[in-house]
Every structure is written in structure tokens, then in C-alpha cells.
Design goal:
The chain is α/β, with parallel strands linked by helices. Helix content is 37%, strand content 13%. A 7-stranded mixed sheet has the order 3-2-1-4-5-7-6. Strand 2, helix 7 and strand 3 form a beta-alpha-beta unit. Helix 1 packs across helix 2 and helix 2 packs across helix 7. The chain is globular. The mean pLDDT is 93.
């Protein structure tokens, strides 16, 4: 991402969520309340106006996505499935005792704002690059920021996560969920591995990382399908290149010699959605490692 500009990808995903609500058969796949919350955030932050959101809810917006579906088949629908997967992991972990949630590269995601009032004993954290986070914070302030929602504007390319979270409100012994939705592909392999190692230092037993990833092609590059070369060029030209990918059937191979192991997902979740797969890594206990 260009250092002085908000993420275009973050806005694209948020707008897609609004459009998906109008696509026949897709509303039921979205987490409850996500569409009105996203619209409210985009308006309150000044990122999108009422006219832009009306367009996002129109048949014309759906037609545009359909016209470009050849480039990334199924990617619009994938945004809904990705949001649902990550929220399911968060809710499941809270039911199992998690008391901290951290959304990395949060963009205009509304998970924290929506779930914080529902789970007052859980602290929700978000981190994003200051160029995007400042706009997000303005919107959240206008909407009403829950006391248990902490927004952090930090550039993780310049600072390590362990240093950013060296704050009184973060508990390094707590069972935690780290959400890395649509994020890891923008990081180098070394940075991804180091991120997981830092998450280990920052969390207690039974913690998990919910993430999405692009599969690795035979040439070692992210494999986005037939038009991979064009897509990689477009991402680079936009200033948000795809760098990291993992083995489609074995993303855990990238986490060898760490405390994280990738769980086997149910068949209906272990499928490719658009250009991505979803996964959850669970922190091994001393007894299981």
C-alpha cells in the first residue's frame, strides 16, 4: 500500500459487502448486521457518500462485478464467505474461552464494532496502517465506540507487532483470536513467518489465527487462476502487490518449527473461494507439541 494513501483494497471489500446484500441468494451468507454496519461506517468516516452507496446497492453494481468475473471468478461471493468464516472462528473461540480478539489490517471491517457490545468481557483490538486507520477511527467515533474496542493506527511494516502491543490493555497470557483476513498475501514469506512467531509471544494457550491465503503455483508465485500474470501486474501497479502464497492443501507447511498447527476444516469450508482458501491455525500446548 502506498504509505500516504488509504487502502483501495479495504474500500473495495467494504463496497462489495454492500453490493452482496442485493445479490440473490447471498444475503444469508453474510454475518448478521454486517451490511448496515458497513454502510454506516463508510458514511460516518467520509470514505463513501450516500450516492456512492446507492450505486453499490444497485443492479448496475452487480452488472459490473459480473462483467469482470472472468478475471477473478467467484471473488464477489468469496467476500461474503470470508467474512462469515472469520466471524465464525471468532465466535467459536469466545465460546471456548477467548477474551481477546485482534483484527490485523482491519480496513473497514465492522467485526469489533458489532460484537463488542455483545461480548462485554472480551476486548476487541484492531490494527491498520495510519492512512486507513485514521478514517476508520473517525467513523467509529461518530458511530459510538464501545469501551472494549481498541483501535490502533500503526504501520506494521515499520514496527513489530510485539512492540505495538506493548500496552497495558493487552494481555499476553490471554486466549486470543488473531484475524488475518485478506492480509497475508501482501506480506513476504519472512514477514508472514515472523508474524506467526510474534502472535505466539503475544497470546496464551488455545489461541488461534484465522486467515485466508492464495495457493502457490508451480512457479512459486501466488496462483490466482488463468489470469494470474495479469492480476499480479495489476496488484503491483496499484501499489498493493501479492507476495505470499501457501500450498493449497497444506498451508501448515509454511508454519513448520513454530507453535502453530493448521486445523483440518470441514469439507464445505476447505474449498477455494474466489482466489483464496481459508484456514485456522491453533496454538499448540506444551503437551501436544
Amino acid at each position: 500500500m502506498r504509505a500516504d494513501k488509504p487502502s483501495r483494497t479495504a474500500l473495495k471489500v467494504a463496497m462489495a459487502i454492500v453490493t452482496l446484500d442485493k445479490k440473490p441468494g447471498m444475503a444469508g451468507h453474510l454475518p448478521p448486521g454486517i451490511v448496515p454496519a458497513t454502510e454506516k461506517l463508510l458514511l460516518a468516516s467520509g470514505v463513501a457518500g450516500a450516492k456512492t452507496l446507492r450505486w453499490a446497492r444497485s443492479s448496475k453494481a452487480l452488472a459490473v462485478y459480473k462483467a469482470f468475473d472472468w478475471l477473478m471468478p467467484g471473488q464477489l461471493d468469496a467476500f461474503a464467505h470470508r467474512k462469515a468464516f472469520c466471524e465464525h472462528q471468532v465466535r467459536a473461540a469466545i465460546s471456548d474461552g477467548a477474551t481477546q480478539i485482534l483484527v490485523l489490517g482491519a480496513g473497514y471491517d465492522t467485526t469489533g464494532w458489532r460484537l463488542a457490545p455483545e461480548f462485554p468481557d472480551v476486548t476487541f483490538f484492531e490494527i491498520d496502517h495510519p492512512a486507513t486507520a485514521r478514517l476508520k477511527a473517525r467513523g467509529i467515533t461518530a458511530m459510538g465506540q464501545p469501551e472494549n474496542l481498541v483501535l490502533l493506527a500503526e504501520d506494521l511494516a515499520a514496527q513489530r507487532l510485539v512492540d505495538v502491543l506493548d500496552i497495558p490493555t493487552w494481555d499476553r497470557q490471554a486466549q486470543t483470536v488473531f484475524v488475518a483476513e485478506g492480509l497475508l498475501m501482501y506480506l513476504s514469506a519472512e514477514v508472514v513467518r515472523d508474524l506467526f512467531l510474534q502472535c505466539d509471544q503475544l497470546s496464551g494457550e488455545k489461541s488461534r489465527v484465522a486467515f485466508s491465503y492464495i495457493p502457490r503455483g508451480l512457479d512459486g508465485r501466488p496462483d490466482a487462476g488463468r489470469w494470474t500474470g495479469l492480476l499480479l501486474w495489476l496488484r503491483k501497479a496499484a501499489g498493493e502487490p501479492w507476495l505470499w502464497s501457501a500450498e493449497a492443501e497444506n498451508p501448515g507447511s509454511a508454519l513448520q518449527d513454530t507453535s502453530w498447527s493448521v486445523e483440518k476444516l470441514p469439507a464445505e469450508e476447505a474449498v477455494r473461494r474466489g482466489v483464496e482458501y481459508f484456514a485456522v491455525a491453533v496454538k499448540e500446548t506444551p503437551e501436544s507439541s
